[in-house]
Design brief:
Layout lengths: L6 E6 L3 H7 L4 H18 L5 E10 L7 H24 L2 E6 L7 H13 L6 E9 L1 H13 L7 H12 L12 E4 L18 E4 L9 H13 L9 H12 L1
Parallel strand pairs: 1-2, 1-5, 2-4, 3-4, 5-6
Helix pairs in contact: 1-2, 2-3, 3-4, 5-6
């Protein structure tokens, strides 16, 4: 597999349960509708200029939800991996799962392994599903691994180490997140890719995830391209004005 070019977009898929409740439906049907939204966005991502797409599917904190909902989510994940595997191969999508696997049901782990193996040759899109994922846990485990090294790593090495903790079987480095989208009206990161999002552009939308459309994705990307990303520096005109002031 070659590294996909393009932006790294990350999405917190929020609002599935509330979407269902507002319609008088079981929360599980909201998660199923959210799965269809995932299919839309994954299909549209390469043409939209996205090379890496990381989706927050199940956080480590989600284990505290009612057991029937957790069971439904695990069943949906297993079904998604199984049903989308062939389409991912046909469309050049590499599927990776990041996060812990020791607490996942055995059937889910088997489908993860099969899907990662089957899609490893894709070049159009790198799709990363965060399952039983905690950014703080990933950073902690990377730091503990660093403590066992003979010499402390530099920043670049530490970034690679964090990525290796949770990036599944891929040997490719994970680029920093360029833009992060959260649906559902909440405005927080919820322990998602904290290190990788250090300079990400943040977009919070009231749209519930099942209603998220390709059009809304394009609108966000258009806004992203209008923003100036300075990474702690200044733009060229600002830098020129600063030099002029100092020279006086």
């Amino acid at each position: 597999m070659k590294q996909s070019s393009g932006l790294h977009a990350a999405i917190i898929l929020d609002g599935n349960g509330r979407w269902a409740e507002r319609r008088g439906l079981p929360r599980s049907l909201g998660h199923e509708a959210g799965g269809r939204a995932v299919e839309r966005v994954v299909e549209a991502a390469p043409a939209a200029g996205i090379g890496v797409l990381t989706l927050y599917a199940f956080s480590s904190d989600n284990w505290s939800r009612p057991m029937p909902e957790v069971t439904a989510l695990m069943r949906l994940l297993r079904t998604y991996l199984r049903s989308e595997r062939e389409r991912a191969v046909a469309n050049g999508v590499v599927v990776e799962v990041i996060g812990r696997r020791d607490r996942l049901p055995a059937g889910v782990v088997r489908e993860i392994t099969r899907t990662e193996s089957a899609t490893a040759g894709g070049t159009k899109l790198r799709l990363r599903l965060a399952v039983d994922y905690s950014a703080r846990d990933a950073i902690l485990r990377a730091a503990l691994r660093c403590a066992s090294l003979e010499r402390p790593p530099d920043r670049s090495s530490f970034e690679q180490l964090i990525a290796q903790v949770d990036q599944g079987r891929s040997a490719l480095p994970v680029p920093p997140v360029d833009l992060l989208i959260r649906t559902g009206g909440e405005q927080r990161l919820s322990d998602f890719l904290l290190w990788e999002c250090a300079y990400a552009e943040l977009f919070f939308r009231d749209t519930m995830w099942p209603d998220f459309s390709v059009r809304e994705l394009h609108d966000i990307l258009a806004e992203y391209h209008r923003r100036q990303r300075r990474f702690g520096g200044v733009t060229a005109p600002q830098a020129a004005r600063t030099r002029l002031t100092l020279s006086r």
